[in-house]
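Board notes (copied after class):
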Amino acid sequence: MKQWLHPGFWVTFVIVLALGLAPIVTQSASTREVMFTILLAIGMAVSLNIILGYTGYVSFGHVVFFGLGGYLGMYLIDSWNAPLPLAVLGGGMITALLALALGASILRLRGAYFALATIGINEAARTFVANFEPFGGPTGIELQFRVYRNYGGPTQALWITYYSVVGITLFAVIFSYLIKTSKFGLGLMSIREEEKQLTCLVGSNGVGKTTMLRTVMGLIRPWKGSIRFDGKDIGGTPAYAKADLGLVLAPEGRQLFTEMTVEENLEMGAANRRARPNAKKNLERVYEMFPRLKERRQQKAGILSGGEQQMLAVGRGIMAKPVVLMIDELSLGLAPVLSLQLFQSLRQLRQEGLTILLVEQNVQMALAISDYGYVLAEGKVEIEGPARELAQNQHIRAAYLGL
């Protein structure tokens, strides 16, 4: 129930409701026509936000479903004598099922490929409607006057249509918010947040940050839900197979091979099939990023300082050629100067296009270098959003930054 207390939802809902009631209260036809157009625009914007806002993808085919819904509604009225509210609902539901079926496929595409696919859908739908005789072909559907008689004439029919649009727009606002707070919505938003970004996960001790990383990596088996990577469920995939896919964890406490040399530890990071062909190139990359490791490459990892061991843990992760690099407590137990150097290295990796998920006790620094952030509380996501906005959130500043 906590999700329904969010003021953003209620402000939006009340504004839409007020706009919808204005013509009903005044019984003004001109006001009705203005609000009709505004409510249609709000409904389209809310539905477009599910794709454009939640995933960050550009959709050029969104208006297709709006148009198809209109054609289907008109067809049900004209050819099947369906009641007006039922025709509006039926057109929307059929189109929604079509969008769901298409979305299940094209949401697996990424970036420009998704946008191109929506252009293809747009053109395919346009060609279909222009040549589909029940929809009137190129000229469209022309409603007969007899349709209006069932509702007492055109004026009353327009009011019934308006009531339907008010209800549909309110439903769109509620449905959009329900999606955002659902597991499906988190999956949509993860499309936007995961790719080539630095995302941080912060929260008090014991809320499940490390457990989450270990579960994603396959070190803990989830008993419920799913873990999706690149559109596939990898919840049951063993850790070594996830490393081959490009999921790499730099664990809390470094967990190095202390009796092996620095270079041998780095070479162990390139043991998976994905990383072996680029082992030498990645080794030079690590040494370039962390010159201290190159200086100490023949020393045993166990005699390095805490900061140098953390550099080695991150370097070993880079050696694995990750698609997503997960780092647990980067700055734990380190001096501020060394912590700053490590955070700068993460920013460099982010600029090179690597996706990073960071669990970090230094909330202020984590939010400063991240693109997006999640705040965990009691094992659940309490707050999320762009890192800059979270850094200005008064609750986070008071609870985690002491400000």
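Comment from the instructor: The domain at 196-399 is CATH 3.40.50.300 (Rossmann fold). The beta strands are 198-203, 228-229, 232-233, 247-250, 324-328, 355-359, 372-377, 380-386.
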